[in-house]
Amino acid sequence: xxxxxxxxxxxxKRQRTDEPDEGPAYTIQDDKFWxxxxxxxxxxxxxxxxxxxxxxxxxxxxxxxxMVEQAQPSAADAADHSLQQLPLADSSEDISCFLHFIYTxxxxxxxxxxxxxxxxxxxxLSTKYLxxxxxxxxxxxxxxxxxxxxxxxxxxxxxxxxxxxxxxxLLAIQMGQxxxxxxxxxxxxxxxxxxDPIHLLAHPDVSSDIKLAVSxxxxxxxxxxxxxxxxxxxxxxxxxxxxxxxxxxxxxxxxRAILANGHRAPFIFLExxxxxxxxxxxxxxxxxxxxxxxxxxKGYNKVWEELPTYFGLGGWAA
Length: 318
What we know:
Distance between the termini: 16 Å
Structural class: alpha/beta
Strand content: 5-15%
Strand order of the largest sheet: 1-3-2-4
Helix content: 40-55%
């Protein structure tokens, strides 16, 4: 379920009583986000306190804006200068990422490489606390990495930091599922099929459901790619009846090339297609080569259209 549907925390301003003050609900102060003039203390799951300005939070978040607008302090509250404390069901790391964006404008820029841990933390909290500007910015950034347009697809986007080159797509799948960003899921899943299966299954931070979906999707993709290649070369190929000896020999060489490169099948949309190999092109007459290109492209276009369904997604329009 998307984070936006999670229950939001309630304000927990300390009540004025005659009992002794039990002290703060946090056990440690954050080094960076502890302002002496802050008006609210956010408390993480790890009991770390972040003393910040409620008015500043309200400028970016509808949740905190509503908190300001709904607050109607009594005379007793006005005389009480104790700080409002707000326990949050969020990690210190996520809160820090969120506050960095609010207080440090250059912390995240759409179109600039950003570590996926930061993106994940900001996306979770921007969704949960209704910070629409940040959420939309992160989605736009992720769509640049995982575009739906086949022509824009890259083996490795320059927006992916070095630390995330291996498992960026797995982290993106988690972000898309947790924070309701279905737009990035088809291409994130597709990229995940290019990861070595052993590395995928051994990844400690990826759920078994994601591993299963990627594995099943990879199998479906490989089958579809092989069917497309073999159908034309073995069954529907007009060069089977071509009198050109070179074309007849090329068919055998093409079959061998398909078998030798079967492990590269998931890379079908990231690498040149088989008919685009210069060596293969030189081995066929022009008529056979043109027919092959047309049929192969038609087959792979169909594979692209069906790609989301291999991972149990509802299609490109979902």
